[in-house]
Design goal:
103 residues; mainly alpha
Length: 103
């Protein structure tokens, strides 16, 4: 792969040989890096597929984690509700009985 100095020398040679317009066009179509570094549409499709697979996998993991947390919260909420009712119900019954005894 030619370095930048070589590219400039080639551009100057083409300018003298073929004119400024042709030299400029040629330098525009020849990349300043190796052709092997250019990504093809197939490369981009493959990359997109791999990224989509990773995103799907992460999404599934997040969904499973969310379901697990939701189940834990639901269970804790149920336990706290039951505990509150177990203490509150006898107090309400005692208050009703006490109020009716006063009448």
């Amino acid at each position: 792969m030619p370095d930048e100095r070589t590219r400039i020398e080639l551009a100057e040679h083409f300018r003298r040989q073929y004119g400024a317009d042709h030299a400029a066009y040629l330098m525009e179509v020849i990349p300043p890096f190796s052709w092997s570094e250019i990504a093809t549409k197939t490369d981009l499709r493959d990359l997109e597929a791999r990224l989509n697979d990773r995103i799907d996998h992460l999404s599934e993991r997040i969904d499973l984690r969310f379901e697990s947390v939701t189940d834990k919260l639901r269970g804790e909420f149920q336990r706290q509700t039951n505990r509150t009712l177990m203490w509150l119900l006898p107090v309400v019954v005692a208050a009703i009985v006490g109020a009716s005894a006063l009448n």
